[in-house]
Amino acid sequence: MLAWQSSRVVMEMSDFEICSMLHSWGCPIEQYVGHQITEDQYKQITGKDYVASKS
User: Within a domain: residue 53?
Assistant: First the structure.
């Protein structure tokens, strides 16, 4: 779990909540799959199946 600090307010958010927030801001979250979130959680957040990149 990551802690985000803003001024004097510390918000504790789960990795799922952080990734959901990032996605809502238009940020890509693919790099978090398999580390902070699962493929199923990726689908919950984006509504799309996770497709691993071929690098």
Answer: no
How far is the CA of 3 from the CAs of 15, 27, 44, 50, 52, in angstroms? Answer: 10, 19, 22, 26, 28
Count of structural domains within the chain: 1
- pTM for the model stands at 0.76
Q: Dump pLDDT digits (tens) for 25-45.
A: 999 999 999 999 999 999 999
Tokens of 18: 């952080």
- 27 to each of 7, 8, 9, 10, how far by Cα in Å? 23, 26, 24, 22
Domain hosting residue 42, numbered range:
2-46
Residue 14 maps to a domain = yes
Question: What would the two tokens of residue 7 be?
Answer: 């001024």
